[in-house]
Amino acid sequence: MSKQEIKILSATGIVGYGFSEDSLRRGMERKPDVLASDAGSTDPGPFYLGSGTAFVSREACKRDASLLIKAARSAGIPLIIGTAGGAGGDANLQWFLDIVMEIVRENDLHMKLAVIHSEQDKSYVHGKLKDGKIKSMGALPELTDEEIDAAEHIVGLMGAEPFIAALDQGADIVITGRSSDTSIFASMPIREGFDPGLAWHAAKLLECGAMSAEPANAGDCILVTMRPDHFLVEPLNPAQRHTTVSTAAHALYENASPYHLYEAGGMLDLSHAEYEQVDERTVRVSGSKFIPDATYRIKLEAASKMGYRTISIMGTRDPILIDQIDDYLANVRNTIQMRVDDAFKGQVKQSDYRLGFHVYGKNAIMGEWDPNKDTTPNELGIVIDVVAPTPELSQVILAFSRTFTLHHDFPGRKCIAGNMAVAFSPSDIPMGPVYRFSMEHLVEPNNPYEMFRAEVLDI
Question: CA 282: distance to chain centroid?
Answer without folding.
Answer: 28
